[in-house]
Write a structure and sequence with these properties.
The protein is mostly beta strands. About 5% of the residues lie in helices and about 40% in strands. The strands form seven sheets. A four-stranded antiparallel beta sheet has the order 2-25-24-23. Strand 23 and strand 24 form a beta hairpin. The N terminus is likely disordered.
Length: about 350
């Protein structure tokens, strides 16, 4: 069970270290491209998870299915939440992740949750785990659930694979409540679990925040980070809120490249970081929870959608098939190249 983290003055202050921007190729290289078995039609890869064996778990937001593929892309199994929740005919698998012992869990944020065993049989389900869920990760067999902050005390719920409540993990409240309610980031990816516990980010974050005592207190500040002084205006319409959000970069994701390496993804970088590419680029900031290497940042031409085993995974275009049909999206795997341990 995960112990609750205190937020009082007795907690050590974070030390802030600069994270220089380096070329993308200095930190990542294309390892390979995985083609997903076209015998199963995937409408889109809405959410992606990868386990330690390299298997893929795809949440299809168009077809509303959950599909498991081998490391080479062969179809292994498909899961239907209706087997667990027959009354949830419109179930949307917003986020699905591997648990332990071959099990998987799929969640519709703020609504139904279903857990399946390795054979695809339903082993646990509930119509609602928490009312405002926005993502989850798995730490030492427990499921850590992040929720959208509305008011009061910020916390994460901790559950067993049987969906029994185990604990509440107290965390920091967001500094900019309106920003985080308006812009929740890339679906389900503002929380990630590492060997030393769960970490999380808010839209205004410079780095991941450890959710338990004794974890890393070093914060890395990437060069493209900009402090956002004010929250979004209350009661404004969508276009005004979007305009105010775009005034500063916003953190959209946190990924675990491995058990001790975190990657923070930032959108809306200032124009000076776009270099020769006019498109919308993302800032990536890599840091070690254990101090294994100095923090480094880069500007990425692709959007990470999952991470693990020392890689991040991006979703490519649909594969053209020999018969002229269009197959499934491909998965492109990028290998992380840890920076050399030199003095800061």
């Amino acid at each position: 069970m995960i112990g609750a983290a205190g937020c009082g003055p007795e907690e050590p202050m974070s030390r802030i270290i600069r994270s220089p921007v380096v070329p993308f190729a200095e930190l990542f290289s294309v390892a390979d491209t995985v083609r997903l078995d076209s015998s199963v039609l995937v409408g889109n890869v809405g959410f992606l998870d990868v386990n330690t064996q390299g298997e893929f778990l795809v949440s299809d937001h168009v077809g509303r299915g959950v599909h498991r593929f081998s490391p080479s892309g062969s179809h292994v199994h498909s899961y239907s939440a209706s087997d667990c929740l027959p009354d949830e005919g419109n179930f949307m698998p917003m986020s699905s992740r591997f648990l332990e012992d071959g099990r998987i869990m799929t969640m519709q944020f703020g609504a139904g949750v279903a857990v399946f065993d390795t054979n695809g049989s339903c082993v646990a389900a509930t119509r609602q785990l928490e009312p405002r869920t926005s993502g989850f990760c798995v730490h030492q067999g427990s499921i850590v659930v992040q929720s959208i902050y509305v008011g009061g005390q910020a916390s994460m719920g901790v559950y067993s694979p049987a969906l029994e409540s185990l604990d509440d993990l107290e965390i920091e409240s967001p500094r900019l409540v309106g920003l985080n309610q308006f812009s929740p980031g890339l679906m389900g990816t503002r929380v990630a679990c590492f060997t030393d516990g769960p970490y999380y980010v808010y839209g205004e974050s410079m780095d991941g925040i450890a959710a338990r005592p004794g974890a890393s207190t070093i914060q890395y500040q990437p060069e493209f980070f900009e402090y956002r002084p004010d929250d979004l205006p209350k009661g404004a319409d969508f276009s005004v809120l979007r305009e105010h959000q775009d005034e500063y970069p916003t953190v959209i994701s946190l990924f675990a490249l491995d058990g001790s390496t975190r990657m923070i993804v930032t959108a809306g970088l200032a124009d000076k970081w776009h270099l020769d590419s006019p498109g919308s680029l993302l800032g990536l900031s890599m840091a070690s929870n254990t101090g294994r290497f100095p923090g480094r940042s880069t500007v990425s031409p692709v959007t990470p959608q999952a991470a693990g085993n020392g890689y991040f995974y991006a979703v490519g275009s649909n594969e053209p098939l020999p018969n002229g049909d269009v197959g499934n999206p491909v998965i492109v795997r990028y290998r992380f190249i840890p920076p050399k341990s030199t003095d800061e």
